Amino acid sequence: MPEKTYDWLGEVPLQWNTFLDTPPEESGPDEALVFVIPVPYDSTTSYKGGSREGPRAIIEASMQLEDLDLELKRDISEIGIHTTPALAPQVGSPEAMIANVRTAVRHAAGKGKLVALLGGEHTITVGAVQAMAELYSDLSVLYLDAHADMRDAYMGTRWGHASVARRVCEISPLVQVGVRSASAEEISFIKEKSIPVFFWPEYIGDQDGLADAVTGHLSSNVYVSVDLDVFDPSEVAAVGTPEPGGMTWGQVTGLLGAVGRRHNIVGFDVVELSPSQGPEAGAYAAAKLAYKLMGYATHR
After folding, report:
1. What are the residue ranges spanned by the domains of the chain?
2. CATH topology for 4-297?
């Protein structure tokens, strides 16, 4: 990547602490198509904490990405990527944090921006889906996660990380992929409501078969939520609740690429990176995944 300079400080290399290290003249909020919104929140985490440090680590790692994506054969950054200030954590109330995410996403998406949330714990997805459902009457949600997240309540709250998918399916149709951990209560609810869930590794067909099966359940407008623990820990270990037997990089990106070709991705989140729990390679993988999702969502 070329070095960035700033006229007021002379011709010296600088870092901007923005996604992809994009300087202000290339990432104004009016011109940029993508709004990257960091949400450093992890107040309902039940196992290993630290996902509040995820957004910072992802943004720092993104500075090492090449602008050119070899798979898509284009410089994705040309669409314009604006990094907003981080949302202040509301540690006393998950509902308050969800409400703030909803407001931020509704404001950005209402202006025609592709919203890219960087978490933080998975709870932030609820606010994003609430906002998108107000804007898109035919919204559906693709939810990649090792865990079902279908408990009606957990540890005294209905708004924690273990209940995210349950709250989301009350708002919009939901498709889950990569699930390999669930309680009896969750399995019962999934069956009762006939929610499309692609358990892993129970469902490992060919790449096209998986894409066909998943996208067949999605509507025209799709919000994508990726909990990084959907990956096998051998690929992304830096998560708060790792689960063996997960998806590979190629399986995840192959599916998301197919979704982008067949549907309109209106926004997405990449959540649950806990940098202290694994190698720094996890932050780089998260940054690259977010960048590729920007490309998949804007290929048209």
Report:
1. 4-297
2. Arginase; Chain A (3.40.800)
**CA-closest candidate to residue 114, choices 80, 74, 71:** 80
Q: How far apart are the first and last CA of the chain?
A: 25
Bridge-based pairing state of the strands 139-144 and 4-6: unpaired
CA distance 165 to 188: 14
pLDDT digits (tens, 9 = 90+) for 238-272: 999 999 999 999 999 999 999 999 999 999 999 99
**Distances from the Cα of 214 to the Cαs of 57, 72, 101, 187, in angstroms?**
31, 22, 27, 19
266 vs 141: CA distance, rounded Å: 10
Per residue in 42-88, pLDDT tens? 865 655 567 889 999 999 999 999 999 999 999 999 999 999 999 99
CB 186 within 8 A of CB 148: yes
